[in-house]
């Protein structure tokens, strides 16, 4: 009986160590996976025709050159794929939009001019984080906000604040572009889903 107890005790200790080891590696794996957070409000209104949206270049509040341009391009390409929207890039306008104009501070003259051109909504945003952070390996870190308003009513149709950290578990596989695309696609899918 004493030998059996010792053997069972050793098996229990080995099983416990094995379980703790597996648990440790699972937690380590979870820590290495990308993490994202977001705060989104709004859904696309049901309309008989596609809603036209003018996308203004995103403000770059980071030290990474062209972060605003990159995110604007990625968001534009995600929105173009949506049948419910007709995307109008700001560089296609016959006149320049003054710097500092956003979805919440459109002067009445510009609002009327855009509406006469068939623009329904205005989307603007900011990139607040866009770079790589270095711990053991470089991980992409992205943070951005955007807002879409209805030009006729001034009502906010869509507001997003999202951020994420890419994965570097067993080697970095994610880039700033792929992480930004993943965050943007998630928010666009939420907005257009009914």
Care to describe what's here?
With 194 residues, the chain is α/β, with parallel strands linked by helices. 37% of the residues lie in helices and 29% in strands. The protein contains four helices and seven strands, in the order αβββαβαβββα. The protein has helices at 2-32, 67-80, 108-116, 176-192, and strands spanning 35-41, 51-55, 59-60, 85-89, 121-134, 138-150, 156-165. Strands 1, 2, 3, 4, 5, 6 and 7 form a seven-stranded mixed beta sheet that branches. The radius of gyration is 24 Å and the shape is globular.
What topology emerges from the helices and strands here?
Layout: H1 2-32, E1 35-41, E2 51-55, E3 59-60, H2 67-80, E4 85-89, H3 108-116, E5 121-134, E6 138-150, E7 156-165, H4 176-192
Parallel strand pairs: 2-4, 2-5, 3-5
Antiparallel strand pairs: 1-7, 5-6, 6-7
Helix pairs in contact: 2-4
């Amino acid at each position: 009986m004493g030998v059996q107890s010792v053997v069972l005790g050793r098996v229990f200790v080995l099983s416990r160590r094995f379980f703790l080891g597996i648990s440790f590696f699972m937690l380590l794996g979870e820590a290495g996976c990308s993490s994202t957070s977001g705060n989104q409000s709004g859904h696309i209104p049901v309309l008989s025709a596609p809603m036209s949206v003018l996308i203004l270049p995103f403000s770059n509040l980071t030290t990474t050159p062209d972060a605003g341009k990159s995110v604007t391009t990625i968001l534009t390409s995600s929105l173009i794929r949506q049948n419910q929207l007709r995307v109008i890039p700001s560089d296609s306008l016959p006149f320049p939009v003054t710097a500092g104009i956003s979805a919440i501070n459109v002067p009445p003259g510009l609002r009327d001019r855009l509406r006469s051109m068939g623009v329904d909504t205005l989307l603007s945003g900011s990139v607040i984080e866009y770079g790589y952070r270095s711990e053991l390996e470089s991980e992409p870190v992205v943070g951005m906000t955007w807002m879409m308003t209805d030009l006729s009513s001034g009502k906010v149709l869509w507001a997003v604040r999202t951020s994420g950290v890419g994965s570097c578990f067993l080697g970095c596989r994610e880039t700033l572009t792929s992480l930004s695309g993943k965050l943007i696609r998630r928010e666009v899918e939420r907005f257009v889903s009914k």
